[in-house]
Structures are given as C-alpha cells and as structure tokens.
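agent: user wants the structure for HCP-like protein from Rhizoctonia solani. delegating to structure tool.
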Amino acid sequence: MRLTCGRRRNVLLALTLLAACTSTAATTTTETSVAPITQESNVAQEDVGTASKEGTPLEPDRKLLEAQKSLADALSIIKALDALPPNTASPLDATLPTWISSLFPNPSGPVASALRIVTKLRSQQWLPSFLSSRASRDEARVRQRVSRLEASLQRSIELGNTDAIYTLAHISVYPPVGMAVDAGRAYDLYSRHADLTGNGTSQGMLGFFYASGYGGIVPVDQAKASLYYTFGAAGGDPSSQMAMGYRYWAGIGVREDCMAALEWYERASHQAMSHFLSGPPGGRTLPLKPTKLSDLSGGLYGHGASVASTGYNSLRAPITAANARAAGETWDDVLEYYTYHADRQEPDFALKLAKIYYHGSIYAGEAVGKVQRDYWRAAKYFRSVARKVWLRDNLATPLLGRKELTKDEQSVLAHATIACTYLGKMYLRGEGFRPDARVARMWFMRGAEFGEKDSQNGLGIIYRDGLIDGKPDYKQAAHYFAAAAGQDHSEAQVNYGKILYQRKEYANALPFFETAIRHAAPFEAYYYLADYNTQRARTGEPSACSMAVAFHKHIAERGTWALNEGGLVLPGDQDRETASTAPPGSTDGSTSSAWRELKEDGELNFGGMGVGMAGVGEERMIRWSIESERGEEVAQNNLAFVLDQGKTPLFLPILR
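agent: tool returned. relaying tokens verbatim.
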C-alpha cells in the first residue's frame, strides 16, 4: 500500500526530528567537553587582566604560578583539539551516540536501524543544512580554541616558562586540528629553547633544519647539522641518536663508521626497549606499522607491474587495502557489514569485528587500515562468542561451566577458544578492564584446554612473572612457552629464547629468535639478536657490526614511543618515562598532563595517491622529512613518491 502525501510528510518530519535530536546530543557533548577549558581559560585571563590593570610586575612566586596555569590551560586545549577528527565537518563514523544505543538493546530493530541511517545521512554534503553536520559552528569553535591556545602559550612565554616555548615550537611542527605547520616559527622557538635550556630534542630539531634546509629557513649545512644532532643525541634525544647513527652509517656529513653508527643506534634501541618493558605484562602495544604510499598505488610501476603487487606480495595489507578502496569500499562500510552480522549472533563475524576493535585496524597491526581502537566493543563481542561455550565463570575451577556442545555446534568451539585468549589478554594487560591476573588465567586455561597457542603463551607470562602469588615459576612458564613455540607461535618462541639467553645459552637461544622473526615477530627477537651481534662486534668480529646496526635500527624505528613523534613530552617530564608515554585512561602507566597521542598515517595515506604534495599537506611533508633524516625507509619512500607525483620544480624548494 502506497503512502499518501500526508504520510510521506509525516515520515520526513520524523526523520528530521531524529536527525535534529542526534545533532543536539552531539552538540551538547562537544560543548560540555569545551566547558572546562573555557572556564580555565577565563580564570587565566582574569588573572592576567588584574596584573595588567595594576601595572606592576608580578611577584616571583605568583609569576611562576601564572606561567604554569597558562601552560596547563594550553595543554588542555591541545588535548581537546587532538580529540577532534581532522575534518570537523565529516564525522569519522556513523555510529549511534551511546545514550541512544542504550535505549535500543536490539540494534537490528526498526527504530535503531532508522536512527543509524539518519545518523549516517547527516554526514552527507548534499543534504539541506538543517539535516547535515554543523560544519560552520564546529569550525568557529576550533578557531576560538586555537586563539586561546596561542594566547595562553604566549602569556606563559612572556612570564619566562621555557616549557611553553618548547610546546609552541612542537605544535608548530605537529599542529593539532585547526592549526597549520609554521616551520619558521618552529625554528626560531627551538633555537631559543636550545639556547636557554640545552634541551636535546630542541638541539635535534635544529639539526634537522640544517640537514634538510626545509622551507629555505636556513641553508643546508651538514657540519652544523651533525653538530646539533650530536648535542641532541648526547642529551638523550632518541630521534637525534637515530639521525647520528644513520649519518655514520651512510657517511652524511661525517666519515662512514659502522662502530660509531652502532653506538648511536644502540642507545636509541635501548630507549625503545625500556619503553616497551615499562608497559603491561607482555610489553607495550606496538604502534601500527606505517605504510608506503607507493604500495597503495601497486608499487612504483603500478598494480601488477611492480614487485610490490605481484606474487606473494599481492597479499600484503597495503595492496589488499588499495584494491578494496579502488572498488569503492570504506572502513566504515566494513565495520557496518561486520556489525550487522555480529549483532545477529554470527560468531565468526563477531570474532572478526572484536579483533578489529582490539587491534585498532582492519588489517591487524597495519596503519593502512586504522580505525578507532575500542576495547569496550572488543570485549563485548569477544564475550558474546565465548559465552556460546563457557556459560559461567569460576576462578577456582576455570574449566567448569562449559556447555555440552552438539555435533552441529562443534564449529563454534574454535571461535570460542580464540575469544577466550583475547579476553585473557585484556584482563592480563588491563585493556578495557582493571588488570586481574586471576581472571586472565581463567580465560587462558579455557583456551589452553583446547591447545590454543596464544593462551599457552599467556599462561607462560603469568607464571614467569609471578603475577598470581608474586613467586615466579620458571619451570611452569617454560612448559607453556615450549608448548606454544612448538605450534610456531612467534611471541612464545621469543619468550622461550629469552629464558635460554639469560642463562647465556646463546647457541640454543639464537635459533628461537631467528625462527620467531620468520614467523613475523615484530620486536623483541630483533633486540636480542642485536645485543648478541653487538657483543661480537666489540670483541673483534667487525663483520657482526652491520647486522647489529640493522637490528638496532629496526627496534628504534618500530618502538616509536620514545621518539616524541606527534606526542608532546615536556622537558621536565622526560625522566618520568612511564608517565610521559601513557595516554589518557591507559593502564600502561600513569597519565601525564603533557601527553599527545602518537600520530599514525592510517587511512589518510590514501590522500597521497596521485595528487602530489598538495594532496598530503605540509604536516605530513615535514614529518616525513624529519623521519627521512634519521634514516626511516618508509618516510623516505613517501617523500620521494609524493615529490615524483608532482613532476614540477615548484614542489622542490620546500626541501632545499
């Protein structure tokens, strides 16, 4: 039966009201998050106004307090800006707000489905302004925040706060949403900060400007670059240490010297490893693996004509992602597809969706498929799968409470054991839950009961670190590590190799590390091979030097927590490594007031496909330039690829 005109109007009116309701809720959320910043800023401005009206200099203690308050206000604004999507007019997803989702427990019902459709329509540009997102209002708020941010930092600088100088320099290179790169201002501020404090990071950034001649701010001077990088490296800046290691390795501005390169790369590698070990059991979560822009185009010669996209390489995540995007897929579409099936109690889709939210990527560990990591949603779907087999929890007897499965239900068991493993990881590491080794052991034992290798490795970590009773049990740990290693589990192979390595049984330990690398171990195995080859190089085996450099270089580049890359660690916080590298709400360590989340290219790499430098923006160009000077191949590839896309000398002066 067709709708009458009156009914059509009623339906349109209902959809309009739903969209307005959703828009109002989002606006309220945004304005609420801004409120504390506005109040804090007003307090600071009132104090400044009082001092100005009096026309008298502030007392030393009050001056220091005023400077610190202004800096704290600025850091709060930076956090608020970083929480916004890059384009405030284009929401990153079309999921329902939490308060609406809670009203509709059945996500596949007609009302919830209608709300989800309306929410997604709001992001479309062709809709009337009253139905589309609030672009102009959002942009106005961002401009106001940026104005307050710069005013707060300038006020703090005027009052003599050197941390404010460093902060303004930093966001001039790694700007938050609403700001643009200002390389000239960054150079001036880093120079001023280095003169006042001798800070290693500021010295290293000066080295970058002299090494690259970026933007023509200063002429290229490799001697000065090496000088500043050396000061920065000696001051503990890992980026400068990597740059000096690369310069000695490649002979840039200095004589080639493998042992000197090894010295600097080893220092950077040690810092990365220290940050890794300062995290939860099993180590910090590695940053997503960066992507080469050339891979997104199928390689330098295109799809099917390049080594990067032929043979086995065609199965790599960047190539798969590029093919998917070329076919019109978006990551929102992928999430919506999996969510649709997962909410209809299909365990294979629920497990895949949970993994995506857990890893923060469509392709586990790869930045090319980056989505918002969401431990709450991951746990929800993992638990829904596990509950199909394990109906009740019992810490004393973990294996009780298992459902008797029929022959038709046996296929669910494999999914449930994997879900048990991930729930064990999350409880062990405090990801989405309060850390609880006993609950973690319960889930791991359920997975290990059916030979799940990740669960066996998790039990090994619990016994090795004595997380239950404070007493390490290396015999039990070795038993579980060996069981998982026998199933080609790379992390377990590393863990078993570490036990042997610490006993100095190098001949037995090294094969485990080498095998782990062949099974795609991303981090620790390289460190122990680097350490072993470093010992050889320093005891009269020069041939081991190049291997040691390569392995230390890999560790330093993968463990980018220490590189302060897009993350803001104030000079005064550098001694508190755990605090300065833990994001808000993380259980990896204490939260630092100066934290900024590391920037990862993720899906935005697609912006560089065939559009030249203008398509990727100066923020990425300067970032890749900095990384290139310290020898990172992916950054060098991306920089060269983008400049080649331009095919005009107009793009080149920025690097002269």
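agent: one observation worth passing along. The chain has a mean pLDDT of 80.
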